[in-house]
Specification:
mainly alpha, 87% helix
C-alpha cells in the first residue's frame, strides 16, 4: 500500500524533474528533439507514479502509455530529421 509520505516524495521528484526539463526546453527553443524528448521523459515519470499508486484506472494507464509511445516515436522522427538535415548541410558545404 502506498502511503502519503511516499506519494509526496514522488511528487517532489516529479516537480524537480519538471522544473529541470522546463529549463532545458526553454534554453533550447526550436529544437524539437529536446522538446519532445523532455516531454516524453515527464510523461514516463507520471506513468511510473501512477502505476505505483494502484488507484488509477487501467484505461488511464493505457492512454498515457499510448501517449508516451507516440511521443517517443515523434522524438525519434525529429532526431532522424535533425540528422538528415545535418548530413545535407555537411555535404553541401563540401561541394
Amino acid at each position: 500500500m502506498l502511503n502519503w509520505q511516499t506519494l509526496l516524495r514522488g511528487l517532489a521528484v516529479l516537480a524537480f524533474y519538471g522544473f529541470s526539463f522546463w529549463r532545458i526546453v526553454r534554453s533550447n527553443r526550436g529544437n524539437k528533439v529536446i522538446e519532445c524528448g523532455s516531454l516524453a521523459l515527464m510523461i514516463s515519470l507520471v506513468l511510473a507514479l501512477l502505476t505505483k499508486a494502484n488507484s488509477a484506472p487501467t484505461w488511464v494507464l493505457a492512454s498515457i502509455g499510448l501517449l508516451l509511445f507516440l511521443l517517443c516515436l515523434l522524438t525519434i522522427g525529429f532526431l532522424f530529421q535533425h540528422a538528415y538535415r545535418a548530413i545535407r548541410r555537411r555535404l553541401s558545404k563540401s561541394d
